[in-house]
Amino acid sequence: YVRFHLISPLIQQSTENIVLFDTFVNILSHNLGEPAYEADVAQLEYKLVAGEYGLIIRVKGFNHKLPLLFQLIIDYLSDFSFTPAVFEMITEQLKKTYYNILIKPETLAKDVRLLILEHGRWSMIDKYQTLMKGLSIEALSAFVTAFKSQLFVEGLVQGNFTS
């Protein structure tokens, strides 16, 4: 089991940055779908999560091939690229995801409760409104470059690994 948390102070600076980060993580997951399929068949699991303060990368499975999967994810992260069609598809999916969160009373209530309790938290309504105003491909590219330049890393490795 390997878990790394790539933390960046950039994410929480504005609602636009949070939405750009969500878009970035979804495009990265989409890009990894085909190359990581063989790892999935070999019973290796990976998950990319857009955490509140950064990207969480989790991989687990048999230890002798796990570093290859982790390296694949890091390679796609470092050489991040996307097409305008993928950008449009992911932003449309994100609009639906945000909207579905807003129309469910229990998730909306949780969001409002956390907004009251946590200092500096951005609401789902703010995120949805930012996304509806529109994002640009250039803004995403600039965000990803800035994100990769301001990273702090925390990691946990458990299992049959050597140092």
Automatic annotation (TrEMBL):
Superkingdom of source: Eukaryota
Residue ranges constituting the Peptidase M16 middle/third domain according to the UniProt record: 1-129
InterPro entries per the UniProt record, alphabetical: Metalloenz_LuxS/M16, Peptidase_M16, Peptidase_M16_M
Molecular functions (GO terms): metal ion binding
Keywords tagged on the record: Metal-binding
SUPFAM superfamilies: LuxS/MPP-like metallohydrolase
The protein's name: NRDC protein
Encoding gene per record: Nrdc_1
